[in-house]
Each structure stands twice: as structure tokens, then as C-alpha cells.
Specification:
Elements: E1 15-18, H1 24-35, E2 39-44, H2 47-61, E3 66-70, H3 76-89, E4 95-98, H4 116-138, E5 142-147, H5 170-192, E6 197-203, H6 217-230, H7 234-237, H8 239-246, E7 257-259, E8 262-264, H9 273-287
Parallel strand pairs: 1-2, 1-4, 2-3, 4-5, 5-6, 6-7
Antiparallel strand pairs: 7-8
Helix pairs in contact: 1-2, 3-4, 4-5, 5-9
Length: 298
């Protein structure tokens, strides 16, 4: 079979950036999309680990077009630096997968003085997406896919204490961050209406990854047992991410919350348009980009 006779892969000539792509569902998603022909960029905190993961993805997918970017996404300065590097590397960006995240049982502060769960799970995707929106819009049709969690159903946005300074709980902070991810997706979809860029989020399921390894004591032990007994594989957990990045049937769909490749209903709190706009405005102030996001607000 000549090159001209070979079937075109469905993601050929598409560029995809996946945050947190060095392991778990992020790496599995990268492999899946690379196998479909996409050029893949992954991010990781450690450059050596990110480069090794990129090499693994090339080998597993048979696709040499995999790039590694190093960034500690708990830092707003590093998120900004990452955005500059991505814009320099990619003249177009077809899909942004906001996958990076973590869980901490105890409260930690970032270099910016923010609570780490809020900073990594929510504010980093908010800021990175905002910084890449012009490139996504110019590449339309394009997609933003953000990883949330079923934990969003237990979340509450503590507008008077977003950073958990008065009453911190690791589970509460995590649930708040995942609820915020759904609200961000809803507001982003509203602002992107008519641009050709869609925004959707998802619950990947309970997946056997390194998630929760930083938790201590009984929580870490309980998570380890649950992973052995009930967890999905990273490949299974990645299925909905790959689906939202590629499926023709969701090409024009925006503002959805998906579970197992099907549209699902998030919590009532996640559906509040008023709170979503309030959270967006607060986040833009914290990230220093108020008034700078080049999409419609109407």
C-alpha cells in the first residue's frame, strides 16, 4: 500500500495539549490520541520525567509527534510560561485537555500563597485556558476538555473562604475544586458561543492511578485498598477524555458534563449560572487577567 492509499487517521493534522500527561489517565489519553494521529503535547512538573513519558507515548502509539513541556502548574508564573512555550511551539491548537490535578489531606500553600488544591485543580486550568483561548479560537473548530469528578456532587463553593483558611478539609477542598471545574466549563461554554470552540467536562471514574498517594494514614490505606478492588484502569478512565476530544457526535456540543462517554447531570450547585459568573470574575482577579479574556461575555 502506498502512502497515498493509506487511510487517514481521524486526528491527523490535529494538535492536542494534555496537562498532567506523565502518568495515569493523562498519559493513557495521550497514547490514545497519538494512536489516532494527533500531534501531542504533554506537561509535567519534572522535565526529565516529562521527556521520559513522551518517549513512552511515542513507543506505545507508534507516533513520533509527541512533545514534552515542563511546568509546575501550582505556580501562576509557570502556567504563564507554559502558555508562552505552547504558543511558540504550535501555530494551531485543536484540543486542550485540562487533566492535571491532585489531592492533599493537609493544607499547603503555593508560591502565590494560594491553597494548593484550588490552585492546581481549578485555577491552573482556568488561567491556562484563558491564555490559550485566542489560539484555540483561531484554530476552530476546537475543543476544551476539562477533567472534573463525581466529587463535584459533594462540593460547595465557599466564596467567603475559597482558600480554606478558616476550616480546611482535604475532601472538601477537592470537592470544591471539582465543582468549580464544572462551573468554569459552563461559563466558558457560554462565553465561547458562536466561536467554534466547545467546552465540556467529565467524570473519568474511580481510576487506579497515583491519585491520593500524598494523603496520610487511614485515608491513604483506604484509597489503596479501594484501588485494588474497584478501580478502573487508566486506559478505561481515559475513554471519556478521548471521546470528548474526538467524537463527531459531540462536535457541536458545549457546556456538558459527561460520565462514561454519555451526557450526565451535575449537581444543582454546578448549574447555577449566577455563581459560575461570580466564580469566573473572582478567579480572573486572583489570576490577574480580569478583562483580558478575549471571548464574548454576553
Amino acid at each position: 500500500m502506498t502512502d497515498a492509499q493509506k487511510p487517514t487517521l481521524p486526528m491527523a493534522n490535529k494538535v492536542v495539549l494534555i496537562t498532567g500527561g506523565t502518568g495515569g489517565i493523562g498519559k493513557a489519553t495521550a497514547i490514545g490520541l497519538a494512536r489516532l494521529g494527533a500531534r501531542i503535547g504533554i506537561t509535567g512538573r519534572d522535565r526529565a520525567r516529562a521527556e521520559q513519558a513522551a518517549a513512552d507515548i511515542r513507543t506505545a502509539s507508534g507516533n513520533p509527534a509527541v512533545d514534552a513541556f515542563a511546568a509546575d502548574m501550582t505556580s501562576q508564573a509557570e502556567v504563564r510560561r507554559l502558555a508562552v512555550a505552547v504558543l511558540a511551539a504550535y501555530p494551531r491548537l485543536d484540543v486542550l485537555v485540562n487533566n492535571v490535578g491532585g489531592f492533599w489531606a493537609h493544607r499547603h500553600l503555593t508560591a502565590d500563597g494560594l491553597e494548593r488544591t484550588f490552585a492546581l485543580n481549578y485555577l491552573a486550568p482556568f488561567l491556562l485556558t484563558s491564555l490559550l483561548l485566542d489560539r484555540l479560537t483561531s484554530s476552530a473548530p476546537a475543543r476544551v476538555v476539562t477533567v472534573s469528578s463525581g466529587a463535584q456532587a459533594m462540593g460547595r463553593i465557599a466564596f467567603d473562604d475559597l482558600q480554606g483558611t478558616r476550616n480546611y478539609s482535604g475532601q472538601r477542598a477537592y470537592s470544591q475544586s471539582k465543582l468549580a471545574s464544572v462551573m468554569f466549563t459552563n461559563e466558558l461554554a457560554r462565553r465561547l458561543a458562536g466561536t467554534g470552540v466547545t467546552a465540556n467536562c467529565l467524570h473519568p471514574g474511580f481510576v487506579a492511578t497515583r491519585f491520593g498517594d500524598d494523603a496520610g494514614g487511614a485515608l491513604r490505606t483506604g484509597l489503596a485498598v479501594a484501588k485494588r478492588l474497584f478501580a478502573l484502569s487508566p486506559e478505561e478512565g481515559a475513554q471519556t477524555m478521548v471521546y470528548l476530544a474526538t467524537a463527531a457526535e459531540v462536535a457541536g456540543c458545549s457546556g456538558g458534563y459527561y460520565d462514561r462517554c454519555a451526557l450526565a447531570e451535575p449537581s444543582l450547585a454546578a448549574q447555577s449560572a449566577v455563581d459560575a459568573r461570580r466564580l469566573w470574575d473572582l478567579s480572573a482577579d486572583i489570576a490577574g487577567i480580569a478583562g483580558q479574556v478575549a471571548v464574548s461575555a454576553g
